[in-house]
Amino acid sequence: MSKENILNAIRRGLKRGPLPDDQAMGLRARLAGHPRHLIPARSRVSRPEQIALFIRNIEKEFGSVARVADFAAIPDAVAAYLAARNLPTDFAIAPHPELADIPWDTRPLLQRRPGRAQPSDLVSLQHGYAAIAETGTLMLPAAPERPTTLNLLSDTFLVVLRASRVVGAYEEAWDLLRAESPTQPGGGFMPRNVMLVTGPSRSADIESTLELGAHGPRRLHVLLVDDDPAALG
Amino acid sequence: MLATSPAFKQNVKGALADASLQKALAFTRPSFAGKRTAAVAALPEFEQLRDVGRDIKNHVLANLDFYLETWSANVEKSGGIVHWCSTADDARAAVLAICQKAGAKTVTKGKSMISEELAINDHLEKHGIEPVETDLGEYILQLRKEPPSHIIAPAFHLNREDWEESFRASHTDLPEDRVFGERRDILTEARKKLREKFLAADVGITGANFLIAETGSSVIVTNEGNGDLTQTLPRVHIVLASIEKVIPTLEDACTFLRLLARSATGQDMSVYTTFSTGARRPADLDGPEEYHVVLIDNGRTGMIGTEFQEMLRCIRCAACMNHCPVYFTVGGHSYGWVYPGPMGSVLTPALIGVDKAGHLPNASTFCGKCESVCPVKIPLPKLMRHWREREFERHLAPQGMRSNLAIWAWFAKRPQLYRMATGLAARLLSWLGRGKGRVASLPFAAGWTAGRDLPTPEGETFFARYARAQREGKL
Ligand code: SF4
After folding, report:
1. Inter-chain residue contact A38 with B45, CB threshold 8 Å
2. Which domain holds residue A200?
3. Which of A62, A110, A181, B1 has the highest Cβ tally under 10 A?
4. Total structural domains within chain A
């Protein structure tokens, strides 16, 4: 009832009835083609520069990045980061095959609990799906192997990301998701939740002064795996 | 939310006399504008993106019925439910019904301006459900039972002592002798208190910055992460969204994301931009089991096809108020309803009636700054002028005499006198500011000019200009 009321009120305002078929076809074609608009030139640079832009932007937004040569180097990098900040060595970790394959036994002190995050978790480690150099933004689509709570509940948020998954602009990241995301119930490609994360949580609500770690993580640290020869400058 | 807009003049008087408000305004003003300027300067394409943003929104508004139907069909395909609501009453009833069906005792809320329009908190409380605002600014306002004074920095008018006082009064389970040495201590206490609420909530309510027709998604943009905790942890997620939030595709969203944060807080991108599509998938380890969108008209369709249609492009970035000399003199509460500043002066009369909000379009110096920073190029001064014309015509018509503030109505019914009085004032201001183009102090309104330089009127009132333009055949 309300639906018809609202649609009719819109049409009255627009001084027309329902869209004629040919016009609706045009709009459907626009949706299907989802054309890009103007994309800023800042991310149209060489691969090494794109990676450098990504790192610069993360740091500008109060995150940090450690570049590692390969997945085998991750346990050391994680242990070093946690130790330098006196953080606990047990953490929740995304149950993603790529993370499970990491040779964690080289650092037996690191205690991993695969699954979603619990409210008591101080540290979490997420699998980075892709990232956008333009603004230093991580793309984290929800999936059974990438639970959303890992992005939110901990105090220190670690993300493992392949350098080959760093793209220039948001549009390119959506292209990856459109191409790779498994078909969802209902037929679409959009996972239940896709978070674009740029830096750690913050608020300026108290006297217009920035404080980190409002409700989400206070620290964001990206472990960037150099798997892309073209990106090594 | 009950409107005090009819009492705009009294509100302004109070605001001018409020020393701590004036201090907060003076402190915040340069940083709001400065941050946007820096972010915009760092993106050479920003001006072109404003044109793109405007054009996308115009395209959507011309085809709003189509895009809403497409979006709604895609929400339902992905396992969500859309509740179409013409009025605020319908929307309140829909939200309550979902909460009651979920057996909800506690509801957490992300920041949402439309929820202020609905006064949803009062409604839930009345029915025995505890709503908890989780945006830090909104949280303290809820403790203090105050409305927001800004659409993205709702509590910037409060100082540290206000926070401390409210926390001590409300968090009585914590030790009385605890010390709030720095802002961090306030934040830590709020974080701890709200964590408990996030975990206890049965339903989470968020707003939506955008709805994506192509995918049936809703999008929220936040910095704290409270909106994400609100929509991820409880069993049921309710999105409140007004009809003009829909845009066609993810690519269209990219353009608006490039405009929004830069215009709002001067960030290149807000910390969390989250796209929600339907409910938890079978193998997911977290996320809500139910996803509802309460889609709300509440007066907006009445703007379509009128000169105010352009206002529906608004993406609620707050740049217009962040650059408004009037806003920074009188503060947000003076406007008397949900939306302050230039965008409020145009939107409020459309949503609650020009008889209640007719003063707001007068709260302008017509300096044009708002239009020049608006990311979707809404001609705010022109739209305020349209309201003034409408209001003026209404008072000229004999049947049009409705209740209003006595003095204003008395003048308005006597156009000659009104013109003379406002003409005198304009010429006086022009004289005071001669040569400088700005009036730095006014003998009869020290509070008004202490916070800002009043751009000097060009020695001509709107009506005089209007009459001249008519004579010159420009209208
Ligand atoms: S009117 Fe323009 S500047 Fe003001 S809040 Fe809306 S989009 Fe932003």
Report:
1. yes
2. 40-232
3. A110
4. 2
